[in-house]
Design brief:
Elements: H1 3-21, H2 34-41, E1 44-50, E2 57-61, E3 66-68, E4 73-79, E5 82-86, E6 92-99, E7 102-107, E8 110-119
Antiparallel strand pairs: 1-2, 1-8, 2-3, 3-4, 4-5, 5-6, 6-7, 7-8
Length: about 120
């Protein structure tokens, strides 16, 4: 199967999966509003990693703005185009792009982290 045929099959499957997961598919180049980001991440777990080695994580973004990790807690907020994370200190904000269940975090245009959004709390 050539690349075009694989792409023609993979894209509809990815969008169908995003719909099943409750994640809105948005163009990676589109700037999301604070409300769109909040809607996409609220009541979802994010399984991913940052650029640093061994930085894999799984955290749940509760609708009340709290973050629940395996052995830590924090707070999340959104603003136009960004999601901010505070773990007992000043928040760190990242530009967010969401494409189906995939979420990428950037600072100054550089990818700092990426992962998958999963409906519900997988941290329990």
């Amino acid at each position: 199967m050539n690349r075009s045929a694989r792409h023609a099959i993979a894209v509809p499957i990815a969008f169908a999966a995003a719909g099943l997961l409750g994640v809105k598919a948005v163009s990676a180049s589109q700037t999301l509003s604070a409300e769109e980001i909040a809607q996409a991440v609220s009541d979802h777990s994010y399984q991913g990693s940052m650029l640093e080695p061994n930085s894999g994580f799984n955290e749940y973004y509760a609708p009340d703005g709290t973050i629940h990790g395996v052995d830590y807690k924090g707070e999340w907020t959104t603003r136009h185009g960004e999601m901010c994370f505070a773990y007992g200190q000043e928040p760190t904000c990242y530009a967010v792009s969401i494409d189906g269940p995939s979420m990428v975090l950037r600072q100054d245009g550089v990818i700092k982290g990426n992962g998958m959004l999963i409906q519900g709390n997988t941290v329990k």
